[in-house]
Amino acid sequence: MNTLGKWLISIRAFALSASTMPILFGTALAVVVGGAHLNIPRFLLALVGMMALHSGANMLNDVFDYRKGLDKQPTPVSGAVVRGLLTDKQVLAGGIALMLLGSAIGVLLAWMVGPTILTLGIVGVAIGFFYTAGPIELKYHGLGDLAVFLDFGVLGSLGAWIVQTAHFSWIPALWAVPMSLYVIGILHANNWRDIGSDSGLSVVTVASLLGDRGSLIYYGFLLFTPFLFVTALVVLHFLSPGSTLGMPPALLLTWLALPLALQRWKRAVNRAAPAQPTDFIALDGATAQLNLVFGLLCSVAVVIHGII
Asked: In the chain, how many domains are there?
């Protein structure tokens, strides 16, 4: 494998949808709902910055998981350290470099837009860095789900909105909740698979607290609540036409992702006797694909609403 391939594995390229979808969605909302004129340079900076921060966080996660004795056995979605393609020191240096790059882009955007985005960025970088880094280690103390919900969901969408509009709004934060739940789903599928090894090393995750049966129920909640959430906000749009929080009917387009959600649910239910050996092992990667489709449908729906 060439050097580029090793680093793509290290940054977990398959999971970058978790960071790119909120940026696309928040930008679309800012233009269509917020009335902003699309600023392409700011959009590209926000996109690259978020991808750099997410990739850096993934790499740091791989390093600290490896050093803590987790993820010793490679899976189809393992990073480069576990696979022996790169050393933990190499990946640590790469992760820090990407975190610094993302932070530098955030400072540049703050200079362009204002201090609000800087405050948001500081919170996001802190969550990403201390996700597995000491002394806080959010992931190892049951706070990983909340961390990714904020960092690669709500805050990403809100940040993209602010980059375009230069002001705060609850709309992008609330409307990003459905896709943010799928980001949790990616992490939960990973932690669910690793309950045995995590518990043995005194690592506390939501999955280890819930156990196998509870994790199945929780995963179902994460899979299907987004559709109900979107529907509820569309109903709010009709019941309270003056509300700025109600979603337009075009967002019901996200229901097209339901068959994919049902496929992932089937994998989860049949985890003890999978149709394919990797069905449950690679459930996190499959959930990332669902997140990508759902996020794209959200953004397309917003654009359609704007056109109509």
From this structure: 1
